[in-house]
């Protein structure tokens, strides 16, 4: 563990002060309080409110200012509920969690794993990706999730204790490329979030018709290892249960750089579709379009870039 500072301890104590009361509440009350906290932040201490509304305007230019503001508040409320769920997800037994979940096209994942060539699973910062990882582990899928360690080691330890409450395994994005490939060679499921701005090292594909720098690592691993690609969309329903949707992405047989672009573009198209159905469930707090596409780097290098792994 990295050396902790007094500032790290203050952040950690502040986090515990906020979240511990939720931990011991019934789930329904905890979720209601999470939504209320989101509403409070949106109106009273609107952290990144301008970023959220700017992103929503860019994604949905046809919506009025009133509609955008309403969607922004709904986004804060959604992620307040996600936070409350995350805080207490280690209290959920596998049976209780499974009772909250319905699935669609789950057989696609099972069929992909049966090929014994590993599976690359791509998600976005959409719905409840944290609980989705916990559910996969509880279902005995041989999976490992990539994550970006937090700068605060105490907070990082707390977050990982929640993620590891089931049978999920974690691997840092700072591990060697060989470690990720080894997971696929062993027939495991490699879960990656790859929808945040990847700066100059990313590949530009369209997301809501806007060129968007996108991490290419997941696509590179899948292409090089001939591993199946499964997309997952863990949607939260109005009654606070979940509907986990699986889709299969068929890689192109084109040359490497064109194939990587094809994979990423199809991934972004499908993510855009689901986000359009539930726009309040996407993490609009991130500056998705911060990097501008002056031009794609020469030769379209396909060196893996893992920026955007779950953090």
Structure write-up:
The protein is α/β, with parallel strands linked by helices and 311 residues long. It has one domain (6-300). It is 46% helix and 16% strand. It has helices at residues 6-23, 27-43, 49-59, 65-87, 94-99, 106-113, 129-138, 153-163, 177-185, 217-225, 256-277; strands spanning 101-104, 119-123, 143-147, 169-172, 189-193, 203-207, 210-214, 229-236, 242-249. Strands 1-9-8-2-5-3-4 form a seven-stranded mixed sheet, sandwiched between helices. Strands 6-7 form a two-stranded antiparallel ribbon. A hairpin with a 2-residue loop joins strand 6 (203-207) and strand 7 (210-214). The radius of gyration is 19 Å and the shape is globular. The two termini are 17 Å apart. The relative contact order is 0.16. Mean pLDDT is 90; it is low at 297-303 and 307-311.
Total E-strand runs: 9
- N-to-C CA distance: 17 Å
How can the largest sheet be summarized?
Answer: 7 strands, mixed
Radius of gyration based on Cα positions: 19 Å
- Mean pLDDT rating: 90
- Work out the strand percent: 15-25%
| Low-confidence parts | 297-303, 307-311
Instruction: Work out the helicity level.
Output: 40-55%
Strand order, main sheet: write it out. Answer: 1-9-8-2-5-3-4
